[in-house]
Design a protein that fits this description.
The complex is a heterodimer.
Chain A (H helix, E strand, L loop, with lengths): L1 E3 L2 E4 L3 H12 L5 E4 L8 H4 L3 E2 L6 H15 L1 H4 L13 E5 L2 H16 L5 E3 L1 H7 L10 E5 L3 E2 L2 H14 L3 E3 L4 E7 L2 E7 L2 E4 L3 E3 L5 H6 L8 E10 L9 E4 L4 E5 L5 E5 L14 H14 L8 E11 L6 E4 L6 E5 L9 H12 L15 H4 L10
Parallel strand pairs in A: 1-12, 2-3, 2-13, 3-9, 5-15, 13-20
Antiparallel strand pairs in A: 4-8, 5-7, 6-7, 10-11, 11-12, 14-17, 14-18, 15-16, 16-17, 19-20
Helix pairs in contact in A: 1-7, 1-10, 3-10
Chain B lengths: L15 E6 L2 E6 L4 H7 L6 E2 L6 E2 L12 E4 L2 E5 L10 E3 L9
Parallel strand pairs in B: 1-7
Antiparallel strand pairs in B: 1-2, 3-4, 5-6, 5-7
Classes of the chains: A alpha/beta, B mainly beta.
């Protein structure tokens, strides 16, 4: 079976769905999204779904702010019958030492300049927001009341449904097996469900973005690292705010249903695509979180899972075209924050693809910044 | 009616002990499950469903279905169908999903 598409988007996560929706809204026809499994089955569905505007680089702040403002009205904008469950209960970042405190102060100054009303808090003030917080080992905090978290499945589905209404085709359980190139032009995409003739491809493949890039001969300076998460049984509301520590290497939030979702990074995590769960994480996570939020000792863990961070050298995404292959676009390397950047990714990538000026200047997020040494390292990542 | 054989646990029926359920003194045997003791005492409503507040009782008996979650000695969401009874336990029906504090 051979199909024809004006553009093929690889990846049915938040990025792919948001790009498809925005392109369709701008009037593009014959958009096909190819997803290996089901919608949000990769990093999107596995993510902690925290939403924050408290970043350490101007670019990440701007992208996050744009996305957050979209999330505030996403149910209405996308005409979603469900609820994306955006809980704007704030986001509390804990500083473990003076160096981190200084970094937070620099970040807050940057954020405030960009219109993000984050502020520094003393530990006493932090405890007013999270009364059960054990502040031992921390020196201060940063907080932004408009940050929070939402449901990654509902959010992605909201984009998918809106895109489908505009005529986008989502091919699920369809794997891309190759991309055919003639000279420097794309001619088609091979999939397990047939051939798609197209001259444009968007790589939004999350943890598999390197594999997709290799299909057109591009080596991306990216690795995919496993990050694990667990969730407790649902309990009465006890945590209104998302809590995170970069040095402590954890984040924690309570979803509206009542389950408490938490995750942490680990330098020893595998980088070979492994997304199995391990008991080591369970032990470390339980130890960390019950020290931080002691009442959680009484909550039982009911489930554990993992996903892939697609990590670039400067922890900022790569967005835009490539010079080697005409019509090949990258929306990759989100380094653990692709979900919260999703709405902006959709808007900005659609502008680039349609040849319009971008709402935010993201030219510095091109693939070639690494070779040129023009990286701006994002300090605020777990 | 008293449950003597548990589907997945083996336990020794110990001495007769007292505990409380919502403040009422109940007698059971040490080591049997809390659910077995409550059932024998005629206490059939263990919790209420979250959304419609319908009564929920003893159901799977193997710690799987969450129909018997109660607060025991201040700990919410205890699966009383697999939790051994001890003397003096304070068992309460819990409202909502269980308070951690």
């Amino acid at each position: 079976m051979t199909m024809k598409a004006d553009i093929v988007i690889i990846g049915g996560g938040i990025s792919g769905a948001a790009i498809a929706y925005n392109l369709a809204k701008k009037g593009m026809k014959n958009i096909v999204v190819v997803e290996k499994r089901f919608i949000a089955s990769g990093a999107t569905g596995a993510c902690g779904a925290g939403i924050r505007q408290q970043w350490g680089t101007e670019m990440n702040c701007k992208i996050a702010k744009m996305s957050c403002e979209f999330f505030e009205n996403a149910n209405e904008i996308l005409g979603y019958e469900g609820d994306i469950e955006f809980k704007q209960g704030g986001y509390l970042l804990l500083a473990s030492n003076e160096k981190e405190e200084e970094q937070f102060k620099r970040n807050i100054a940057l954020q405030n300049r960009l219109g993000i009303a984050s502020k520094a808090l003393s530990l006493e003030e932090a405890k007013e927001i999270v009364p059960m917080l054990n502040t031992e080992g921390f020196v201060s905090a940063a907080y932004h009341h408009k940050d929070g978290h939402l449901n990654p499945f509902h959010t992605t589905l909201a984009f998918v449904k809106a895109a489908e209404k505009l005529g986008v085709t989502f091919m699920k359980y369809t794997e891309v097996t190759g991309i055919d190139v003639n000279g420097d032009e794309i001619i088609g995409v091979q999939t397990t469900k047939g051939y798609i003739e197209t001259s444009r491809v968007v790589n939004a493949a999350g943890g598999q973005s390197q594999d997709i890039a290799r299909m057109v001969g591009l080596e991306l300076p990216i690795y995919s690292e496993r990050h694990q998460i667990l969730v407790t049984e649902p309990v009465d509301p006890i945590l209104s705010t998302m809590v995170m520590s970069f040095t402590g290497n954890f984040y924690c939030q309570q979803v509206p249903h009542g389950g408490i979702v938490m995750g942490r990074g680990d330098a020893g995590e595998p980088r070979d695509g492994n997304i199995n769960s391990g008991w080591h994480f369970l032990e470390e996570m339980a130890r960390t979180i019950t020290k931080l939020l002691p009442p959680l000792k009484k909550a039982m863990v009911i489930r554990q899972w993992a996903g892939l961070y697609n990590i670039t050298p400067d922890r900022q995404p790569i967005l835009g075209p490539v010079k080697e292959i005409k019509g090949f676009y990258l929306a990759v390397g989100f380094s653990g924050h692709g979900f919260m950047f999703g709405p902006a990714t959709g808007i900005l990538m659609s502008e680039i693809i349609m040849g319009e000026p971008t709402s935010i200047d993201i030219s510095s997020l091109n693939l070639y910044r690494f070779d040129r040494g023009e990286m701006v390292f994002e300090p605020s990542v777990v | 009616m008293r449950i003597h054989e548990h589907p997945v646990l083996t336990y020794e029926k110990g001495r007769e002990v007292e505990f409380t359920c919502n403040g009422e003194i109940v007698v059971g045997y040490e080591g049997e499950t809390i659910a077995a003791a409550l059932h024998a005492a005629g206490i059939k409503v263990l919790k209420h469903s979250i959304q419609n507040h319908r009564p929920r009782g003893f159901y799977c008996a193997i710690g799987n279905c969450s129909s018997c979650l109660m607060e025991v000695d201040g700990v919410p969401n205890v699966r009383i169908c697999v939790e051994p009874l001890k003397e003096g336990m304070i068992v309460k029906t819990q409202e909502g999903k269980g308070a951690l504090e």
